[in-house]
Design goal:
The complex is a heterodimer. By secondary structure, chain A is of the alpha/beta class. Chain A folds into two domains: 162 residues, Rossmann fold (3-Layer(aba) Sandwich); 65 residues, no CATH class. Chain A contains nine helices and ten strands. In chain A, the strands form two sheets. A six-stranded mixed sheet of chain A has the order 6-7-8-3-9-10, sandwiched between helices. In chain A, strands 2-1-4-5 form a four-stranded antiparallel sheet. In chain A, helix 6 links the parallel strand 7 and strand 8. In chain A, helix 3 packs across helix 4. In chain A, 44% of the residues are buried. By secondary structure, chain B is mainly α. Chain B has two domains: 224 residues, no CATH class; 248 residues, no CATH class. Helices cover 75% and strands 0% of the residues of chain B. Chain B is built from 21 helices and no strands. In chain B, helix 18 runs antiparallel to helix 19. Chain B is globular. Classes of the chains: A alpha/beta, B mainly alpha. Chains A and B meet through helix 2 and helix 3 of A and helix 13 and helix 17 of B.
Chain lengths: 239, 567
Amino acid sequence: MIEVQGLTKSYGSVAAVCDLSFSVAPGEVLGLVGPNGAGKTTTLRSLAGIVRPGGGTIRVGGHDMERDPVAAKRVLAFMPDEPHLFDYLTVEEHLRFTARLYQVTDVERRLPALLQELELSEKAKALPGELSRGMKQKLVIGCGLLHDPTALLFDEPLTGLDPSGIRRMKQTIRERARQGAAVVLSSHLLHLVEEICTRVLIMQRGRKVALGTIEEILTERPDLRGRSLEDIFLTLTGT
Amino acid sequence: MIEAALYLTGRSLVNATRRRVARLRQPKYLIGLVVGALYFYWFFFRPRRGGGLGAVASPGGEIVAVGLLSTLVLLKWLFGSAETPFTFSLAETQYLFTAPLTRRQVIDFKLLRSQLPLFFSALLSALVFSGGQVSGLRLFRVVGLWLVYSTLQLHYAGASLLWASLTQQGVTGWRRRLGTLVWWSLRRALPGIVSAFQDGSTQGYAALTSVMHSGPLGVLLWPLEALVAPLVAASPVAFASRLPAALLVLAVHYVWVVRSTLAFEEAAVEHAAKVARRVEAARQGRWGERTIRARQSTGPIRLRLAPTGGPAGAILWKNAVGATRDLRPRTLVLLVALVIAGSMTLASGPLRALDLVAVMLLGLGAIALVLGPLTARCDLRQDFEMLDVLKGYPVHGRDVVRGEVAAPVTLIGLVVWSCLLGAFAATASRPGPELPSLGDRLALLVAALPATAAVLLVLVLVQNAAVLLFPAWVSVGRDRAVGLEATGQRILMTAASLVALLVALVPATIAGGIAGVGAHAVGLSALWAVALGILVASGVVVFEGAMAVSFLGGVFDRIDPAGTGTG
């Protein structure tokens, strides 16, 4: 469960996120969409505990991110759009390191199967510099899912993946949601959002423009009925 | 083509200068520039004794210069790479090799582009050797050096092309034959020259000159002499009269290179990618890294991470793995062998080889202690650009800082302690009266072990504190700032480290002093009392360090990655 209440974040005089509230229940996939600079990434980074909000509260799995960030992060996984890896750790070492930080004690047993699942068995001893972008993305996702998080945050999850990787990623997101994880997915790919998200949060200039299922949004704006999500998005954001 | 090269060089220079001037609005760069400029002035222009480069014009100077140049050329022919004659950047390969340009135009472009760096190299060389005395003649020296560097560049390119061409045609064994010829010539000429130098330098130079001017060698060396002549000219008139011959040598080299029919483009593209990888590795602090394939095949030292335990230990492991990935057991063995072999060579009279081993180990330990915290960046200086990732982990800031600081302290500490223990072991059986008794030496060791660890802790903590408290002032991660401003910033950081060390040592010295004096008063020998005092002082420093880690952990928790503005 992810609960956001009155989230606010400013950089100097620029308000990146303004009084944003929403919640994501277990099993739900929330699509976070908006034009560039809408505040999507800031929202995700606040949810992940990377940046400190200027105001409001964030609760992940019942833990307040401000008061008990360690407990909140322990049930969370954040997959950024750019796969950030330690240049000097191999694929296998990344998994071991992450397992230790998240107290995953059976990593030794799970490692071979996990590497096989990620299609990285042959690259287990490789450094990030030797991996393609898609492989790096897979490794980040493998590290993120290692501790079976109940809250998942994806920022542009399909970037750099090949067609089979895209299919597998969609399956993973759906599968995790089915298992009870609360998922937030930020993407510019509206067809992806339409395909796998149960609800949509449309943002513009740091504010919430619309929130709900597509049906709920259309109920509020009947003039948009019958149009694609792309048309709805462009109309609501005025872009 | 010339216009394009000049445009690229000119615009690159203007834009880089404009960017540097613009960033001077930030105090960190302005103050850095002032400090860097003062250092530059002190290093290059402070009044010094001696004429510096002027010595080249002295009797024998010309012959020495020709000798040095000959050696460089010979080394290139004997051991130089035939891989690629020109080093292109990735951007150059992308834009030039796909552009509608002839091969000669590409070479012209590359040669023109390299003239500015070569000129600066000549200017810097002249400054270094001139003792800060800038005069008209020195400016001629800069031009002379520039000519030498440009011709050398062309000569290297021509040699590489020739070697590659011979290899393609299946002609082998040339280097071996050339080496044999050089060895045979040296064996014939050297004894006479050495003997002449034993009679006096004038006779020696005369003998050397005679050898270099006679027979086929005289013909072979004429281009080098013509090239060096303007550099060592004693007056502007002499410079002008010698210039045409040097320019002729340069022109002949140019024709040689551009007339070569060998295709170098493919090798250049591969080389550009290799250079880019090396630069990337160097930016990450892995200097001298070989190719990935080579690194894996040699099998690095492995450190295992236990699946359970505190997060600080995991971060320490992560950084230690990264820092030691390129370290080979054979490197350590080679270092030990070098220390022992050097000591055995230098040992004489009452100075035993083991004494020298001890001295060398103490020297190595001291260097590691002083320079290690500055150069081993396997801590927040390396990881700060991964702040997003670190802050996403379910770990308290104090644990992150503890792990980050522990990595360099542990690694450098191991080196320092190994040196201290090695030095102690090397002199353990020394009965001589020149050294303190074994017991006293043990007391010194007992004092030195915690003292070095404490100093190391403070120095590493200062570097990491700077990253967290003044991120804009510290260069972190891959991007290492260069230039006068960066030099100034580093000088300021070093000064700040020393001040912090002194401040940290005040309470430690007081506590240690009280403990030492008290211990001596109750009957402990002076040296053991000092050892006890240092032990207590080190304990105080460690306590201060723990407090600092706790404080910095709080800073880490509060820091906003978006607002760090790292420099």
